[in-house]
Amino acid sequence: MTVAEELPETPEIAQEEPVKQRKNGLYPGVSDELAENMKSGWADTELHDLQPIAQAAETRARRAALSARFPGERLVIPAGNLRTRSNDTDYAFRASVEYAYLTGNQTEDGVLVLEPVTAADGTSGHRATIYLLPRSNRENGEFWLSGQGELWVGRRHSLAEAEQLHGIPAADVRELPEKLREATGPVRVVRGHDAGIEAALTDKVTAERDEELRVFLSEMRLVKDAFEIGELQKAVDSTVRGFEDVVKVLDQAEATSERYIEGTFFLRARVEGNDVGYGSICAAGPHACTLHWVRNDGPVRSGDLLLLDAGVETHTYYTADVTRTLPVSGTYSEIQQKIYDAVYEAQEAGIAAVKPGAKYRDFHDAAQRVLAGKLVEWGLVEGPVERVLELGLQRRWTLHGTGHMLGMDVHDCAAARTETYVDGTLEPGMVLTVEPGLYFQADDLTVPEEYRGIGVRIEDDILVTQDGSRNLSAALPRRSDEVVAWMASLKASVKG
Ligand code: GLY
Ligand code: MN
Ligand code: MN
Fold first, then answer.
1. Is the pLDDT score of 396 beyond 80?
2. In this predicted structure, what is the pLDDT of residue 28?
3. Atom of ligand 1 nearest to the CA of 457
4. Contact 361, 422 (CB under 8 A)
5. Could you tell me which residues belong to the region Disordered (predicted)?
6. Angle, nearest 10°, between helix axes 56-69 and 159-166?
7. What's the CA gap between 177 and 392, in Å, rounded?
């Protein structure tokens, strides 16, 4: 009998999803002596007097706003679970944005629960508890024989440490399903992250009420607080450095493929942040016309444009989303520059339309108007511009919306209602991208040959301020002459 088989009864959550036991082909058996030996001889590493995380005050304020919206109801917000990538290896874990936003914690299997409480003065509120997996048990061998054992996955915070860090009472998540099954009163859960938790609530929740919770949490994130704006600026600053890295290695990319660009940017993202916020689009030549080109396996040729759409995600999950369309050689050809400058003009018009009180749609309309005008001027579509816009004829070449909210998701606040987002009004603290583009497919016979295979997008991250807007990505040149000068100095810095 192995020690693994002697593990005590697994708690509820583990019964539904059995804890993986490490199978080691080289050492299949564990003697009783070894099992006994592994129980002891370990130092006490409990950490005391931990400082709260940087956003502890903000997460408390966010929980308070959530509490006020759903008085008297139990709210369950799971982080989610690891997902298998292959056999016994998992994808890198990323906690649900709802959970991370409300706790600042990012641990797999974690769950935030807000229990309704009534204070002595009769006011109703909630008591928050963060449910987490505690430190691994050494007595039953879990810490070295279980797939979730700390010896395999790394040290976890104890529940007491988690309380200090997050300012939220912590409890053992393995006890939560039973508690939820026994709970009475109205309850809502954020769906789609933790099937085990949802199963425990299955006869207590409805899809409609759960959706209201998800929508509220998405709309809460439309206006960013000061911590979030700081994180977005950090994400953008790292992204700017990542773009500089790429320009410096364009020679190596020419000698290999777009993958060299992807890898170069990824290095910056992993060293300075958590990850890239989305698959980097490293699109050279005609690949720029494929909007989500993430295969990145094509050649990089001097004379072509490189459309690089990439963003670093910070350790707290805030991502930049920036695009520059760069001439691989360092200078734009005449036709490339003509198209680039048109997109720049459209972006300028779009950015100018971002201000508090403006309709969300205004910046899109402003950019589309400029692009439609250029297409008419170039004889690619019959005017007048008003007709083109009314029929949407410019969209053959503009293809996508001119931007979106930005935050913990690259396309942030996606569950927000139309009336609060797309049909809504801009407010200070919102952060959005402005990213017009023109794309002439390589096989588009309706345009002269010189246009074909050219795709240009320029994308910046814009904060709505009290009196207008601030371009968080202004450090990265946009105007074509500034891009050329910037590339020249970076290329020279490598040679020199
Ligand atoms: N990177 C995807 C987008 O710009 O929306
Ligand atoms: Mn974008
Ligand atoms: Mn983008």
1. yes
2. 57
3. 4
4. yes
5. 1-30
6. 90
7. 52
Answer yes or no: are the C-beta atoms of 142 and 164 closer than 8 Å.
Answer: no
262-307 pLDDT, tens per residue?
999 999 999 999 999 999 999 999 999 999 999 999 999 999 999 9
359 Cα–ligand 1 center, Å: 21
pLDDT digits (tens, 9 = 90+) for 412-441: 999 999 999 999 999 999 999 999 999 999
Pairing verdict, β 312-313 and 275-276: antiparallel
Long-range own/partner contacts, residues 229-233 (CB < 8 A, 24 or more apart): 229/429, 229/431, 229/463, 231/314, 231/316, 231/318, 232/318, 232/320, 232/406, 232/407, 232/431, 232/461, 232/463, 232/472, 233/472
181 compared with 148, residue with greater pLDDT: 181
The DSSP bridge pattern shows strands 170-172 and 124-132 to be parallel
For 110-124, give the DSSP string: -EEEEEEEE-TTS-E
3-state helix, strand, coil in the chain (%, to 5): 40, 15, 45
- The CA distances from residue 55 to 114, 219, 275, 400, in Å, are 19, 19, 20, 35
- Return the structure tokens found at 458: 């320029």
Tokens of 79: 């982080």
**Rounded Cα–Cα distance for residues 28 and 356 (Å):** 65
Angle between helices 226-248 and 480-495 (to 10 degrees): 60
Q: What architecture does CATH give domain 226-495?
A: Alpha-Beta Complex (3.90)
Fold classification of 11-220 is Creatine Amidinohydrolase; Chain A, domain 1 (3.40.350)
Ligand 1 pocket, mutate which of 433, 457, 460 (most atoms under 8 A from CB): 433
Ligand nearest to the CA of 291: 1
Nearest by Cα to 235 from 261, 264, 259, 265: 265
Does residue 79 contact residue 110 with C-beta atoms inside 8 Å? yes
How many CB atoms lie under 10 A from the CB of residue 330? 18
Please give the order of strands across the beta sheet that includes 74-78: 170-172, 124-132, 111-118, 74-78, 187-189
Q: Check whether 13 has a pLDDT greater than 50.
A: no
pLDDT digits (tens, 9 = 90+) for 20-60: 444 544 455 788 899 999 999 999 999 999 999 999 999 99
What's the full length of the chain, in residues? 496
**For ligand 1, which residues put their CB under 6 angstroms from it?**
278, 309, 321, 404, 410, 435, 459
Q: 123: which residues sit within 8 A by CB, 6+ positions away?
A: none
Domain locations along the chain: 11-220, 226-495
Position 2 scores a pLDDT of: 27
Strands (E), 88-140: 89-90, 111-118, 124-132
Ligand 1 pocket test: pick from 276, 321, 324, 431 the residue with the most ligand atoms within 8 Å of its Cβ: 321
> What predicted TM-score, i.e. pTM, was given to this entire model?
0.94
Cis peptide before 477 (omega within 30 of 0): no
Residue 362: φ, ψ to 5°? -60, -45
